[in-house]
Amino acid sequence: MLQHSKIIRSRDEWKLKAVQRAEEIREHRKTQRRYRQKIAQLQAEMRALEQTAEVKKNALAPAAAGNLVDLAEARQVRTLCVSLVLQAVVSFRSVPRILALFRAEALLGIDWVPHFTSVINWTLRVGLGLLRQVAPIDSPWVAIIDHSIDIGTKKALVVLRVPLAALSQRGSAIQLGDCQCVGLTIAETVNGETVARQLEAIFQRSGTPAAITKDCDATLHKGVRLWMERAHVSVPVIEDIGHVLAAALKAQFEPTSDYQRFTSLAAKAAKALRQTELAFLIPPKLRSKGRFLSIGKLARWGEKMLGVLAVKGRARKGSPLAKLRAALPGFLTLRAFVATFAATAVTVSQVMEILKHKGLDHSTSEQCCQLAEQLPANSIVKHRLRAWLSRHIDIQRQLSLSLVVSSDIIESLFGNFKHILERSPQADMNRTVLLIPALCGHPDAATLSNALLHARQGDLTTWEQEHIPYTMRKKRQAFFADDQSQKAGKS
Q1: Is residue 118 part of a domain?
Q2: Is 416 among the domain residues?
Q3: Is residue 195 assigned to a domain?
């Protein structure tokens, strides 16, 4: 009996499964029929829409011909868009909004407002067009070279051309309007060999400069030396006065225990005074990189604190003086160091102000020598400044015009570029680096139009593929694409 009941139960289960499978098959067939009917219906609707579109296209063709944007007006709008970005420092997305506002208020006779991506492409084409127009000039000029800081995994080598007479003609520090970007290269590997090859290609197009101004970077120094050896030329090299004096300040003060204690007290005072009524007395923030390029602000702060804390007598409990003394314990014991440090920093600031605004010639050299005499006899800053003046005044005599001895202008250019680049949450060196040539000079409407004629959209794409084959954004998009993610999961 037990075996018989098992057979009956197995038969019933088999019948139930067979019935379920049959119902599933019927439902599947019904679904297939519905899908076929829907596909046929959609195909019929698509054919009807294609016929309707063709009829409307034929009917509207004559009217559309009269609504085409005038080519001359389009060029004016294009030039205006680029000028808003470069001269009015307007973001790419804001340009169409401004034009739309002017159009609505009838302030400009504009019948066409471009998309912001078109504004981006036009601006970058201007930069590429300006680079393509680089050619030798008759008047002597100085090449200012420098690397940008690391952005992503790449560095950009930029070479600016400044006419040797620009400083004398302006009568003050040179500006971006006096410069022309004659070289722009992007690389991941940066060493003396790569710099030499890049300079060779750049100077073949621009001609040989009368002098080269650079900072004290060893890579640039080696690259310039290798280029001169291979080109069989001898070009005077001008070391940036700001970096020279910053290195001298660092060599003189950083190894001393007094400097270490002074900066430690300044850092502790910043924490103690922050978010208090004395927050306006917080010392200047020390940069982790290149801090001695702006160390004069800290020296002046220390000198001012000496005057405030030197009040005789006990301060009333809870008074601002008592709080400041608590934040800077033992600061007055550094009186001698702070006085020397501040006096040296002030002298350095005066020297740099003279040389950056007037350049180096016989008159400014004499002024700087007189300022150097104010420093102590054993001052490292004094010895290095006098050695620098002696070496570079010989170069000035060879060229007979005031020397551009500061590379601050290229730092200013990098600052303007990074201000635009850092708007991106994933900062990377991409094709927007072509903004750098466009930010130099005073491009008028004719210059912008000419630059756009020298660089088509296809040229921009080709340049990007050759010089920047990938960016972090492109790699991220490729990695997180569905097909790529599946491949990555299998590997």
Answers
A1: yes
A2: no
A3: yes
Predicted confidence (pLDDT) per residue in 376-411, tens digit: 989 999 999 999 999 999 998 988 888 888 888 888
Residues 14, 360: Cα–Cα separation, whole Å: 103
Tokens representing 191? 């060493």
pLDDT in tens, 151-171: 556 788 999 999 988 888 887
Residues 370, 471, single domain; the answer is no
What's the number of domains the chain is made of? Answer: 4
* Same domain membership, residue 369 and residue 272: yes
Q: Are residues 454 and 317 in the same domain?
A: no
State the residue range of the domain holding 430.
132-240+426-477
pLDDT tens per residue across span 136-145? 999 999 999 9
Q: Is 182 helix (H, G, I), strand (E, B) or coil?
A: strand
Which tens digits make up the pLDDT trace of 227-255? 999 999 999 999 999 899 999 999 999 89
Number of H helices, E strands in the chain: 20, 5
Check whether residue 115 and residue 153 sit in a common domain. no
**C-alpha span between 80 and 448 (Å, rounded):** 10
Distance of CA 465 to the CA centre of its chain: 20
Buried b / exposed e along 141-174 (16+ C-beta atoms within 10 A): bbbbbbbbeebeebbbbbbbbbbbebbeeeeebb
